[in-house]
Design a protein that fits this description.
The protein is 37% helix and 7% strand. Strand 2 and strand 3 form a beta hairpin. It has helices spanning 3-18, 25-43, 83-90, 152-169, 179-182, 196-201, 235-242, 249-260, 271-284, and strands at residues 72-77, 101-103, 109-111, 137-142, 176-178. A five-stranded mixed sheet has the order 3-2-4-1-5, sandwiched between helices. The chain is α/β, with parallel strands linked by helices and 285 residues long. The longest helix is centred in the first third of the chain and has 19 residues, at 25-43. It has two domains: 72-201, Lysozyme-like; 210-284, no CATH class.
Length: 285
Amino acid sequence: MTKFSAALIVAAILAATACVRNPYAATNKVYRQQAKALARQIQVQPAQPTDSLPAVPYWVGTVNFNLRKPNYVIIHHTAQSSTAQTLKTFTLVKPQVSAHYVIGRDGQTYHMLSDYLRAWHGGVARWGGITDINSVSIGIELDNNGTEPFQEAQVVSLLKVLAALKRTYNIPATNFIGHGDIAPTRKSDPSALFPWQKLAQRGFGLWYDTTVLTDTTAAPFATDSLGQFLPGLTPREALRIIGYDTQDLPAATKAFKRHFVPTDPSPLLTETDRRILYNIYRKYL
């Protein structure tokens, strides 16, 4: 092949790529319009909080500020049939849902919203004392219907995104969690098939020490002879300290086990489960 022929082929490929019509051109325009509106909003001089406060002679704007940054990453599965379906859902007004990233089964990654903006992905949720998860987090949706294994290419892309987020925003390992962790009564994503242990080995989330699986020592939770929990350190308290909302204890327990003991969907804690829970609890102290 001559250099001229090669140049023609490259030019043809570039021309074909340039001619690909973006089916989301219209909603991308809406994105830009809304971003500009937000930019105008934050440029407005702050008003006096209330007229009943004493008047000040002049406004003073601080010179020390920047944008808020995310400190949590919430991982979801889409519960839909394809990436295209999810992209469509996130560009419709009526569903009122979105995420920062959508990662397809083939690893293709769509960065749908600036990390500094607030996506609508967490819904009614709680983690520790945080009740507005959307304001402090990045939402990542994985194209998966909730009953299938997560694809290797997808997990590889996810790990790359997580590494960039952790490096850019200095997000602690403990703050990579799932939607089902923050909303145990409503959500189960990502499913029990999600490879949390693999993520933890790369520094995204925590995992228990495998020695607890062969340890015969009972977890030091307070119980009486009938197995009823007494005041002191209990599984409920350990779950609460980790971050789970324990108002519905069975739901919180199932969420914990879906994350750390995915082979057993029951809300009951075996002695091994208790050892795992205690081991994770110790890592959060």
